[in-house]
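Fig. S4 source data, part A: sequence.
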Amino acid sequence: MYDAVRCWPFDNDVSRCVLQCRINGYIIDAIIGLSVVYKALDNVGALWRWLGFQPNTKIATVVFGLFHGFGLSTKIIEYNISPDGLTPNLLAFNLGVEIGQLLALGTILIAMSYWRRTAGYWRHAYAANVAMISACFILVGYQLTGYFF
């Protein structure tokens, strides 16, 4: 959890910077879907088996955090926020997002600590990760369809 909390301000900086350029939300959302696929594959040990080494988690966190920040920014751009009061609105938005992320992370960590103590944890975790991979490939296909068509 320390790494996740230590890296969270990076997301805010990206959100503020991206407002100055136009990035297609479909592409960013497809990349976010692929980042979830990457993590699910990492969870089941597929990356180690396929690549023969474990990719650097800190680098992956920064890269995927960058794209998640771009994703938030594309949604902010879609809202066509008035330039009047933009800075306080962005700060309030980012504060709300970060508080929500910390609350969700805390809840998930508590639930996961109980789930890991059950006998069927590994079986259910594997199935959940496979389902997540499938769902995210559908999301990627959906986003790319929106981009190209």
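Fig. S4 source data, part B ends here. Residues 115 and 124 are 10 Å apart (CA to CA).
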